Amino acid sequence: MTTTSRLLPSAVLFFLVVGASYSVQVPLWEAPDERDHFHHCQFLVKNGVLPPFVGARAANTDSTVLWPQSPQLYYALGGLLVGSETEYAHPHVHFRPRRYTLYYCDLPKTTFPYEGVIRRVHLLRLATLALGAMTLWLTWRTARLLFPADPAAALAALAFHVAIPQFAFISATVNNENLCNTLTALCIYLLIRLVCRPFRWSIPVFLGLALGAALLTKQSAFYLGPVIILAVELEWRRHRSLRRSLAVLAMIGGLALAVAGWWYARNAVFYGDPFGTRDTQAVVQKHWGEEMGARSLSVSTLLEMFKYWFGSFWVSIGQLALHLPKPWYVALGMACLASLIGLADSFRRDGRQPLLRAEERQGLLLMVVAVVALVALGVNYNLQIYTPQGRNFFVGIVPISILGGTGFLSFWPASSRERGAGVMLVAAVLFQTIVLLGYVAPVNWAAQ
């Protein structure tokens, strides 16, 4: 076992401790849409049927949910922990305008030991946190698969992932994103196996099932489409078997369609399109205002969009209201720019041989295409429903972390790459600790 492999359990344990701290400290519903996600789980387990079509009149009541057009897998699994005996959460939630805390739950025993609905929320939070830890492990495992001779690259990707406080926060709250993050991370891992390892028919089978489950959890998993097509094309270049490549593509698409296609067909019947976009747009505008509606494509809109994405990708705790001082974001922006420069340098040739093996270059190309596809999907969605939030990019946290870690690591000499990756991990732990103890905890302690 290498030194970097021995650091993996410590990094995962640190992530779990930070996530558990968020789960305990952050008040109920003090996360984006947490109340709606929990109520959706309650609705399924209490009624035993899919949420009915109600159009733009959607709201959290005993007979419907706010987002009936959303894929249902997370809510069905979450209902197993919610249980049927708990009362509905929505009557007990009150709006309280404040600088940071927007909601509070007016129920007894909101502190440990929890009771009733409060206990169920925290159980679901812990289960969701476990998914976040699994996604973190998949980041390391995918990087290790991509760079088998360079364990420092896997540690660098792990460090980049650990350094994102917003991911730890979102992982510690009730939402469908973490299940989708884990499933898409598994898809990325399987795609790297398809491209960089000897072919096995079990890979496209598992990939199709994982993709179907991801699409049955959240629509953002569709960004994987171009990545899968490119991966099959790269696999064809290795073996030049068109029949096998077409069979692989058909197997992946067929299994994904078998798992998730029925849901999108249902949406097409009820809402007029497979994604229910028009109805979602109507609900958003009804509940949050007309400014959340469609935008026209322009340079100013894109710049504003990327500004919100970047800030809320790193730190935007609570109901997207608790931010770091501006110098922190400037420093993070400079660090990301340096990482991009280092990543570009990783692809160059040194006059004797490529700095990366062919399989590694192909794998990194897949990561780049994944990020580009995710950004394109995000731009398209936000031009229809303007809710730019960086957490929506966590569905691509594995390629983002691998590219970010690779970029930073390129500045270290070959003889000290493991030391450089270790420094990155220490810096990530320090940053997470500063955000949690220096900015988040004091606000939540003051609110209790």
Overview of the structural elements:
This protein has 17 helices and two strands. With 448 residues, the protein is mostly helical. The protein has one domain. The chain has a two-stranded antiparallel ribbon. Helix 1 packs antiparallel against helix 4, helix 1 packs parallel to helix 5 and helix 5 packs across helix 16. About 6% of the residues have low confidence.
Oligomeric grouping of the chains? single chain
Q: What is the number of helical segments per DSSP (H or I, 4+ residues)?
A: 17
Uncertain stretches of 5 or more adjacent residues:
89-109, 350-354
Judged by helices, strands and strand pairing, the structural class is: mainly alpha
Q: How many beta-strand runs?
A: 2
Distance between the termini: 45 Å
Helix fraction bin: 55-70%
Helix and strand element order? HHHEEHHHHHHHHHHHHHH
Looking across the biggest beta sheet, what order are the strands in?
1-2
Mean pLDDT: 85
Rounded radius of gyration (Å): 22 Å
**Overall outline:** globular
Tell me what portion of residues adopts beta-strand conformation: under 5%
The domain tally reads 1
Largest sheet data: 2 strands, antiparallel
